[in-house]
């Protein structure tokens, strides 16, 4: 009987150790599997978090590029590089607006001019006086042909402004804005920008006529 019990205990020990080893192997395998799954998910979430700013920047750049190329492809109604149009041998300078109607494209509900007319003969000095938004700057915008009127005519020397070569007529007009824009260049280059191929003599004459010679001479010479 004792031998049978001892033999039975030996068999139990063998079964016990075998079960422990199986449990250890199973637990280790399951732990490694969970570690891989959780680690993979964590790595994916981290990668997504790192990629989000890049994706946002890419999306923003794509939208900006689309707008830029749309602007490049846009053909303006008034093309400053169009070489067609009338060029006069001599320009006198009579200015006339005849029954002009105008609204800015960005403010179509606001009528700036409704049947506006005036005439300024050459050789005279005129001043436009009025409250803000009354159309003083708009007159200059029309004379420079930055815009065309909806109706009516803008005339220089009895010639409709639309018939002139845009680049040429703008070269005949000297415009000094309220807020001048200077490019990153010398004063000479900024002045010469107003006329292609301007000579030093023409630049000096322009400086003198603008009463800017004394001011410019006082600037540091580079």
UniProtKB/TrEMBL annotation:
Subcellular location as annotated: Membrane
First and last residue of the signal peptide: none
Cited Pfam families: ABC_tran
Top-rank lineage group of the source organism: Eukaryota
Topology term for the membrane: Multi-pass membrane protein
Main subcellular location of this protein, as a coarse class: membrane
SUPFAM superfamilies: P-loop containing nucleoside triphosphate hydrolases (SSF52540)
Name the record gives this protein: ABC transporter B family member
Organism listed in the record: Trifolium medium
């Amino acid at each position: 009987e004792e031998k049978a019990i001892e033999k039975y205990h030996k068999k139990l020990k063998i079964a016990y150790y075998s079960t422990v080893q199986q449990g250890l192997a199973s637990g280790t395998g399951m732990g490694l599997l969970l570690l891989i799954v959780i680690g993979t998910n964590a790595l994916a979430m981290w990668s997504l978090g790192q990629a989000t700013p890049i994706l946002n920047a890419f999306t923003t750049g794509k939208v900006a590029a689309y707008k830029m190329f749309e602007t490049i492809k846009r053909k303006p109604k008034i093309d400053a590089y169009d070489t067609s149009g009338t060029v006069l041998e001599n320009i006198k300078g009579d200015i006339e607006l005849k029954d002009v109607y105008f609204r800015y494209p960005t403010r179509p509900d606001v009528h700036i001019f409704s049947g506006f007319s005036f005439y300024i003969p050459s050789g005279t000095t005129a001043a436009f006086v009025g409250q803000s938004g009354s159309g003083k700057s708009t007159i200059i915008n029309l004379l420079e042909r930055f815009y065309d009127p909806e109706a009516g005519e803008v005339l220089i020397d009895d010639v409709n402004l639309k018939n002139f070569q845009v680049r040429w007529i703008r070269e005949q007009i000297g415009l000094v804005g309220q807020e001048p824009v200077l490019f990153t260049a010398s004063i000479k280059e900024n002045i010469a920008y107003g006329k292609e191929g301007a000579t030093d003599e023409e630049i000096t004459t322009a400086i003198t006529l603008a009463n800017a010679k004394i001011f410019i001479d006082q600037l540091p010479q580079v």
